[in-house]
User: Which sequence fits this backbone?
């Protein structure tokens, strides 16, 4: 079966110093008003890493007040886009100087692979900051073509104080996915990190201050969704909420916004993304792609390719190779560079995934490989593949958010499209084929926000990302992401004696 | 005073009500329950017609038709150009029926017949023609990926759209929403306001005549808590576009959140300020301000209901505004001499009068007007209050009637602060010749549209929508179509590309 599955890499590990554990409001690290703290745990062992200040409504009020002052009267929106970009570049440089420490925080907090943190996740944060830093001085409105003797133009104004509510699966990536375009737009903000992963956000706040981002522009209030998160969504002086997380909580965010001040929201929610593998695909490449699509980051990724549809011509070969390949997928200490998969983030997720595995067995799917927890400490689960999965089974419809693949067969392209779309979600999809017409037809027919052809997880700062259907609305990445933090203002004046219209 | 409020001699056109049933999947049908509701003429309060009353069951049938038309029908599968041709045909048909449509909105809602004929209905034609011409120009982008990948975005029609439209501009609002959604390739269910069901059904008839396929455009008349709520909560509607009050806007957004998390766009109320500086031409400013609040009997979301006049010209302005208001003729909307028809119904009529009483109780001074007009129907005199304080309800709440709050200011800073002292942010007017004042104030007022030395200068190419609690999302302009499109990114690895 999967393999190391032991608690940690022997006795050599020493818990690093956790430098930042307080709320960051108006440029200062402060205790919560209540004085309360909460624990954040290491999923390799379940033990406490640190106690972090627990923010609640009063702390959110202070943070929003600071952000409001910084927006209405402070320097940030009054700087040119170019100047904002320079400070964001400085911020990116500082992140690059602290890659190791930051990667370590996410590994300890979320069980993420340290090697990937250092080579991908944290450098990617710097890339995102730089992308949006370069966009900050290129935010354009339009002059219009009015049909009467009037001049009109649109201004793209920063929307104001933004609330960002971010999930625990990619604590650093998610932080900058949201903060970068909002900073570029000239907004000020309050970030509420997931309670499971409060640590790296506070370090980033510290670096933001070092970079010269004015006090009150970025505030970080750690705490729980039902308290701090809800306070942000219901706040009468927050102009916009950007949320990434589960569909259930997405509903609460939108409802709270509606009941308070009708602030617009953007939601990036769950997924049950299909990968459609046609007969002409290279089977080894396809097996490798599918495996990574579902087991990467222990399956804790919204775009996990959790439904794998393989055309019947290559199905048997695929099944055999997928089972073999999964055996080579190493589960163990995320600090160990030879490990492919760390622990699930916490006990709750761990139990939820195991429950889904039991559902799958009971509903009559066949367990091809894996299916069991791994090791005696922490929250490790074997990479798991089910075959003989029917479309209406829970494991085919619900987002499991763990290393559990549902492998299914199809005959025709129409069948594949229909099955791919038979979900309430619509976040991503993969298509494996060399045929131009199949690629074009299927990419247009699958109702999902991103279609990856002969690749997967091919994110890019310039490629818009977001959901169709119940995977949400609004786009992150790309220049369009900045639109979420801007408002369109039209300005119209009559003209006299213009030589053209 | 207001003025006529009587039946002067003029020629009344014949009122014909041809369409009173729901329009679903290309057919006029009764409501499943068989129920009907009354629509009344606000000139008299009397019933004009009985219209089919749609409820959840009818919405279900309509959504089903729209879903079939989208998932399997011709409309999204036509080219943008072909959709545009059919939309042009609909525009032509509307042009051939301007008079009948204008009559419907006047008798349903009390809007001026002459303005319907020369502004409102022709405006719908223009909207359709604009979006017909945009339908074949919907562009995604090819991207500049940072690795060896090709990426592009597709702007796909979002699917089945629900449009919930208000009663104050029944025709304009219908096409504000329907035109860009049609251009985008979507199918839709329209829920007109219960006060104004008639013209929507006529448009549905013309849509079919124009060749819009069955199921693409469905109209379910009925009430908000039943038919409207059913659309907002429907698990198979992909998007709701709403124009109306903030209170109902909340319900729309909540229902969307609780059902299938459909995206919504909301265009809500306003309490729009007009700031008139000392260098303004007083006569021009008085004329602009009066029209800004009394036009369409004040039943317009962007009504300029708070008029701030700089102290140097305040007294002259006040005197001239009162004189001008006295010349403003209130009477039968079919009379071409009349400037202002009746409020839309009893409820609105009473609400406006209540606000006038509030204003008096709170200590504002009535400069002119303040009373109902005539013994039948829902007519109210054009009303101006002075000595209004910022925190009075007549300065904070949207009255939606012909009630102006006139206030004085000294400095630019004060004007900006007062203008922004509202939970709304829909529009604002600035009257000045000074370039720097115009630029500074237009950037400082938090509202979605700023009219400098003009008001109500709407244009099909000019985005329109709210800041703050006036809502989010924009109508008109090319970007209105974005509401009915979804961005899909398509990414493929590339090999041997000579450039990146």
Assistant:
């Amino acid at each position: 079966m999967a393999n190391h599955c032991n608690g940690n890499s022997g006795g050599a590990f020493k818990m690093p110093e956790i430098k930042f554990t307080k709320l960051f409001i108006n440029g200062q690290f402060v205790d919560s008003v209540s004085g309360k703290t909460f624990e954040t745990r290491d999923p390799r062992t379940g033990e406490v890493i640190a106690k972090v200040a627990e923010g609640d409504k009063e702390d959110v009020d202070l943070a929003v007040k600071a952000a409001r002052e910084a927006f209405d009267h402070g320097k940030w929106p009054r700087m040119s886009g170019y100047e904002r970009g320079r400070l964001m570049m400085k911020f990116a440089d500082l992140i690059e100087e602290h890659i190791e420490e930051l990667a370590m925080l996410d590994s300890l907090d979320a069980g993420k692979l340290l090697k990937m943190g250092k080579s991908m996740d944290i450098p990617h944060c710097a890339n995102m900051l730089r992308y949006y830093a370069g966009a900050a001085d290129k935010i354009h409105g339009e002059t219009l073509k009015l049909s009467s003797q009037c001049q009109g133009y649109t201004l793209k104004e920063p929307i104001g104080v933004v609330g960002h509510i971010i999930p625990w699966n990619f604590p650093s990536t998610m932080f900058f996915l949201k903060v970068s375009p909002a900073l570029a737009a000239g907004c000020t903000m309050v970030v509420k990190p997931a309670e499971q992963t409060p640590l790296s956000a506070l370090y980033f706040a510290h670096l933001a201050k070092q970079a010269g981002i004015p006090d009150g522009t970025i505030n970080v209030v750690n705490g729980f969704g039902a308290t701090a998160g809800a306070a942000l969504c219901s706040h009468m002086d927050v102009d916009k909420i950007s949320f990434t997380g589960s569909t259930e909580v997405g509903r609460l965010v939108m409802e709270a916004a509606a009941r308070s001040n009708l602030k617009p929201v953007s939601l990036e929610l769950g997924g049950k993304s299909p990968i459609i593998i046609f007969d002409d695909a290279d089977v080894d490449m396809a097996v490798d792609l599918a495996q990574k699509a579902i087991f990467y980051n222990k399956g804790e990724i919204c775009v996990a390719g959790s439904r794998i549809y393989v055309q019947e011509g290559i199905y048997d070969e695929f099944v055999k190779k997928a089972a073999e390949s999964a055996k080579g997928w190493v589960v163990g200490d995320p600090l160990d560079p030879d490990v492919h998969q760390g622990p699930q983030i916490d006990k709750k997720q761990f139990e939820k995934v195991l429950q889904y595995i039991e559902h799958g067995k009971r509903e009559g799917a066949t367990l091809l490989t894996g299916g069991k927890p791994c090791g005696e400490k922490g929250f490790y689960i074997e990479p798991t593949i089910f075959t003989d999965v029917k479309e209406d089974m829970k494991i085919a419809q619900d987002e499991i958010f763990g290393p559990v693949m549902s492998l299914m067969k199809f005959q025709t392209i129409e069948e594949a499209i229909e099955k791919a779309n038979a979900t309430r979600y619509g976040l991503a999809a993969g298509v494996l084929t060399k045929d131009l017409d199949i690629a074009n037809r299927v990419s247009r027919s699958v109702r999902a926000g991103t279609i990856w052809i002969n690749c997967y997880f091919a994110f890019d700062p310039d490629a818009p990302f977001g959901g169709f259907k119940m995977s949400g609305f609004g786009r992150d990445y790309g220049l369009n992401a900045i639109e979420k933090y801007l408002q369109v203002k039209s300005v119209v004046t009559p003209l006299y004696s213009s030589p053209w219209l | 005073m207001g003025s006529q409020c009587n039946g002067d001699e003029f020629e009344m056109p014949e009122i014909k009500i041809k369409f009173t049933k729901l329009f679903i999947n290309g057919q006029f049908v009764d409501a499943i329950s068989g129920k009907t509701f009354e629509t009344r003429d606000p000139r008299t309060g009397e019933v004009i017609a009985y219209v089919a009353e749609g409820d959840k069951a009818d919405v279900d049938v309509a959504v089903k038709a729209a879903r079939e038309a989208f998932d399997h029908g011709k409309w999204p599968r036509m080219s943008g150009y072909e959709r545009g041709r059919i939309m042009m045909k609909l525009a032509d048909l509307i042009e051939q029926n301007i008079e009948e449509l204008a009559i419907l909105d006047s008798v349903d809602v009390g809007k001026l017949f002459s303005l319907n004929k020369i502004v409102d209905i022709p405006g719908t034609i223009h909207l359709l023609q604009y979006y017909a011409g945009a339908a074949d120009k919907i562009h995604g982008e090819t991207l500049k990926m940072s690795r060896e990948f090709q990426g592009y975005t597709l702007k796909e029609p979002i699917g089945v759209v629900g449009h919930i439209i208000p009663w104050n501009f029944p025709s304009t609002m219908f096409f504000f929403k329907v035109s860009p959604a049609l251009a985008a390739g979507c199918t839709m269910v329209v829920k007109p306001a219960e006060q104004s069901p008639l013209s929507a059904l006529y448009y549905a008839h013309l849509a079919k005549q124009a060749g819009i396929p069955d199921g693409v455009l469905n109209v379910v008349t009925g009430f908000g808590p039943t038919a409207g709520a059913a659309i907002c909560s429907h698990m198979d509607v992909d998007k709701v576009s709403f124009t109306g009050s903030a209170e109902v806007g909340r319900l729309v957004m909540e229902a969307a959140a609780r059902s299938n998390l459909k995206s919504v766009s909301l265009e809500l109320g306003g309490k729009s300020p007009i700031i008139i500086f000392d260098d303004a031409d007083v006569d021009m400013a008085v004329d602009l301000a009066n029209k800004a609040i009394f036009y369409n009997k004040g039943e317009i979301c962007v009504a300029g209901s708070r008029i701030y006049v700089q102290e140097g010209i305040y007294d002259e302005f006040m005197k001239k505004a009162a004189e001008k208001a006295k010349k403003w003729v209130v009477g039968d909307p079919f009379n071409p001499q009349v400037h202002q028809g009746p409020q839309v119904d009893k409820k609105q009529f009473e609400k406006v009068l209540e606000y006038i009483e509030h204003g008096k109780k709170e200590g504002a001074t009535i400069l002119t007007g303040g009373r109902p007009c005539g013994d039948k129907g829902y007519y109210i005199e054009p009303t101006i209050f002075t000595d209004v304080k910022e925190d009075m309800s007549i300065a904070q709440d949207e009255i939606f009637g012909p009630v102006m709050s006139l206030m004085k200011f000294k400095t630019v800073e004060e004007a900006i602060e007062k203008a922004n002292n509202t939970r709304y942010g829909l529009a604002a007017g600035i009257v000045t010749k000074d370039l720097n004042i115009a630029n500074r104030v237009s950037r400082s007022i938090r509202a979605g549209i700023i009219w400098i030395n003009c008001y109500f200068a709407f244009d099909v190419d000019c985005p329109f929508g709210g800041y703050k609690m006036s809502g989010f999302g924009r109508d008109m302009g090319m970007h209105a179509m974005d509401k009915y499109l979804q961005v899909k990114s398509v990414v493929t690895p590339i090999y041997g590309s000579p450039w990146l």
Summary: Chain A touches chain B through 63 residues (CB under 8 Å). The mean pLDDT of chain A is 96. Residues 114-135 of chain A form the longest helix (22 residues). The CA atoms of residues 165 and 192 of chain A lie 5 Å apart.
